[in-house]
Each structure stands twice: as structure tokens, then as C-alpha cells.
Amino acid sequence: MLLDELKVQERLRLDPPTDYILGVCREHGENCTLVFKSIMQADAVADCLRRKIIHFATEATVIGASILTANPSEYTTKLFAISGSCKHEMVENQEHLIRDASEALIKSQKKFNRCLYYIASDGDSRHRRALISIVLQHDLDACQKIYTILQPLNLFDLKCGHNGLTADFDWTHILKHPRNTVLRLTGFYVSGTYITAAVIKSHLMSTGMSSLTVDTLLAPNDKQDVVLMLRLLYAIASLTPAAPSDPPLVQSSRHSLCLLGQFYWHLLNAYLDISLSLHQQLMHLSAAAHLMLTLYNLDKGGFIPVQTYFDTMRMIKNAYFCIAKVQCDNPEGFFYLILLGTDGLEKVFDHCIEDFIST
Length: 359
Ligand SMILES: [Zn+2]
Fold this sequence. Notes:
Blueprint: E1 2-7, E2 13-15, E3 20-22, H1 39-50, E4 59-65, E5 78-85, H2 91-109, E6 118-121, H3 125-135, E7 138-139, H4 147-150, E8 159-160, E9 166-169, H5 171-182, E10 188-190, E11 193-195, H6 197-205, H7 211-218, H8 226-237, H9 248-272, H10 278-299, H11 306-329, H12 343-358
Parallel strand pairs: 6-9
Antiparallel strand pairs: 1-4, 2-3, 4-5, 7-8, 10-11
Helix pairs in contact: 2-3, 6-7, 7-8, 8-9, 9-10, 10-11
């Protein structure tokens, strides 16, 4: 089950099949009658909006589902819930919404012999807080079939929700976090060494990269430019250890950058090297998790924000849980790591926008 937030136009609409007035926030909508029977109800809604008893929805929580399958016609994400919000919602209400949606999804898919493996978000803070109470309830039950697969893994976190339910955070969003850390104006710490953009620039230039290229990678005009992001992370991942003749300061910062580069290299390869087997992808994810645990333990928030640490660890853990579930539920089946995350929902948004433009 995939969650995302979408900006919506602030206006009311009438839904003819139900005669409901839509476009009002879910947090306060119950304070006003929204069933349209005559112009009286429309006037009452307008009055409540003016008095700020209810609000226009400024954002919609969009919930969809996709199937982990090798068949492209089946893994397309299907939307099944859209709910407007004025962004004044308490975490408990967000949790109720996610629980209701997941229970409805589980019930509707039972007849197809499908079950809910995970709930994915792009890293929205309210989603994160709501998901914590849903998927970090208790240790995995020893009577679950996947227990014998996951329990022997050293340091592996077995906390999950009902029936082994886990949370996922979108890997394409996770990959953007390291670049944002590198671009932090205040710098960051790796294994106790203070690293700034200027330090990274001098190391990249020492490999033969031009000043202009490094400046473009470190200060992109478009922070969403994925190609530049990947080039920067791969450039750091490609740094080799300093020469013995280099000054001690250069040697220590190069050592830290190489450690950081190894972390990026494992994370990037797990998702972007299409020649790898699933076993190799898991080895990269495991290496990334161990490196991140070590580096975070040394410098905590000075290395990466705690939210990034949390989301990345949940993402890696979810991959292991999902693969164990597929091994038990469909031993002859295929599993594709890149199907995880919320990318399916974003593709649906793209199609909606394309349809809108073409009409
Ligand atoms: Zn409201």
C-alpha cells in the first residue's frame, strides 16, 4: 500500500453520484453538513468556510496499491482512496486513516489470495510518525513462517506490525538525502572528520575533475536534478585512498570521504546496477546498513539527520522482510527490488496530469 501527498486546488466541487460537497478538509469537515440537498447547504458550507469552522483542503492524501509481480500489466498502481486535508491533523487521525485504508485493502484482496506486505511513504513526517505505531508494535512472532529466515540475521531488527507488516520509504527519495547532506552549508561529520563542500571540491579536483564540473555538481541550479545527484555520489564513491606523501589532513579527510563513498556505492548499486542478482542486491543493502549504523553511531546528527537514518534503515529492513515473505508464499516466484517504494503512485500522478493536459 502506497501513500503520498498531493497539492490540490482550493475549491469546492459537487460529487453527483453521492450528492456530497467535496473539497473540504477531513480534519474539520464533520462540523458542517456536506450533503447537498438545496442551495441552503451550499450557503451553510460557504458560511462555515468564512468563519473558519471548516477549511478548504490544501493537500490530498492519496492511497494506492500495487502487486509485487513480474507482470508489468499487474504491478501498475491502482488508487483507492483520496482524502483532502488542511494539514492541521493530529498524528492519531493520520494513523486512523492509514489503519482504515489498510484494513479495507486487506479485506478486499483476501478473495484473490493476496496479503498486505508493507505500507510505503515518500518520507512525509506525519506518515512517518503514524507508521511508527502501526509497524513497530512488537517483535516478529516466532510462529510466522518468515521468522526462521529472518531471526538468524545478526543485528536485524525484527519489530513489525500485525502479520509481519512493515513500513517502506521510497528509495528514489532516500537516494536524494545523501546529496542534501553533502550540500549542507554547515558541513557534516564522517568518522569524526569535519567535511565541507570546499573539502569535497578539493578532493574531487585532485582526481582531475575541472573546477566548473565540481561547482555544477555541488551547487546544481535544480536540486531535483537526479542525473547531477547520481554523478556527485558516484564521483565521491570513486575516490581512491590518499597517497602516503599527502599531508596528514588530506589523508584523514580522504579516508572519511572513502568511507562515505563506500556507503553511497552500496546504496546506489543495490538499486541501479541492473546486472545484479537479488542476492547481490541484498549484500549491498546489508553493507550499506552496517556502514550507516557505524557512521551514525560515531557522529549521530552531525553525520545525517535522524529521520534519514530511520527511513533508510526501514527501507532496507522492508526489502529483507518482503523477500522472506515471497520465499515463503511463492517459492517459485520472482522479486524485483525496484518495485518497492512509492514510484508507482508518482507514475499514476504523471498519467493523470498527461490526461488532464491532453483533454
Ligand atoms: Zn481544517
